[in-house]
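The authors assume throughout that readers already know how a fold can be written as discrete tokens. For illustration, here is how one protein appears when written out as sequence plus structure tokens:
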Amino acid sequence: MAAESSAATATTSRGAGAVLLVTCLSTLVVNANTSAVSILLPAISADTGTSVDTLQWAVTGYSLMGAAVIVTAGGLGDVFGRKRVFQLGLLLFIVSCVFIALSTSGLAVIIGRIIQGAAGATILACGLSLLAVANHGQQQLRAVSLWGAAAAVGAAAGPLVGGVLVDVTGWQGLFWIDAALALICVLVTWGAVAESRDEQRSRSIDYLGALLVALTLSPIVLAMSMGADWGWLSVPTIACLLIAVASGFAFVFVEKRVTVPLLDLALLRNVVLVASTVAILIGAGTINGLMYLLSLYFQNPDALGMTAFQAGLALLPATVGLVLIAPLVPKLAAKTSGRQVVGLGFLVTAIGFGVLGFVHASWNYLAFVLPLVAIAVGMGLSNGPSSSAATACVPQNQVGSASGVSNMARYVGAAVATALVATINASVIGRRAEEGAAMSEALAAGLAAASWVMAGFSVAGVVMAMLLKRHRMARGTLQDAAASAAAPLHTLTTTASGAADAHPAVTK
């Protein structure tokens, strides 16, 4: 009996180790891929003859599909098997990588990235579920913390890795390498990871809700992207907004009637959850908008004229700074107030963007460093406590739903903000060029205008922070530090998650 128990324990340990390996490697690859793409856009544009303004759909399309899929993917894993759906996500990711790498047109790259958005969301959702099921107690906390660290490292390293590969292998190299790493994950998962599912969960999947999310968001992003060309009061723009409104009402109608809704509408009565979700949306939108704009500005020959590698290196103060500051934030929030830390974070971010709002064609790279550091510090301060509040203000049985809402918000913020700042940037550049300004001045004016918009978003984040007063604070443990580091990418549970069960009236 003792020998059998020992063998079973060893088998379980090996299985947990395999799950940890494939989930951490896959989340690192997915997040590095996501953050690297903006660096690749100029090279893709040069190869395919597609304008960078059109190629922004490679970024926004990815995020739109992720918003529609991430909650549904988790449900599919619970019903049909987490291992099975996780592997399908990996296979779809491989297919999308190969498709993009072989693409010779911008449209094909955009289509591939939209497919990749579904694959990436599935990998993240089911991978985290596999990890949680394969581990228990302190081992589970350690595993999830490592997963969060891998996600943060991937996102920080993505622009630099992408820049190196553009110069060494061409932009296609990133996708070939990602496909190879994903294939390793498929093989390890197939051979060493056990299947699991939620036998207690209803087998109902809210497919219609996911479709309506896409139908609500896509016309909004399309209107933002094309409104300057169509005219903001033109028939196509207004039609897009009407479709979005109609789809939004249809979504609410459906969610009230399905067995397992994509979004529990009752959660929207929780002021802290709504405020933290909007704060998360703003944070995700501004960091993605920043990466998009600066990746293009730094590489433009009429601006700083950097190579892709140099641009990736130049973005390190923002990407690495955010990762370094975030783990320190939970202890600060525990000693003071989450509301104050989030408000301070958004205020510092707004100041950083405000400085970028004064950008001039004469600026060299050193002029960008301080605002980049300010934005990184501000986002590090605001992201972690906002994410923690989203799961601390609800009972334990609603933590999963609250996490799903906030994770969807990240994708929505990334899609909408990137589309908006890309449109503002392009329209200002075009207008200034038509007025006879030098291209270097037009580029600076476009970046400045978009930066002021993101400064405005950050000020709105300060307002959201004022509503975060009624929730339990995380204690600042290693688990909380990992959750804070991963907060720009995914909501992980903290030591405060589900605290509304025992402390419904806790305020701080």
In short: The chain has 18 helices and no strands. The longest helix spans residues 2-48.
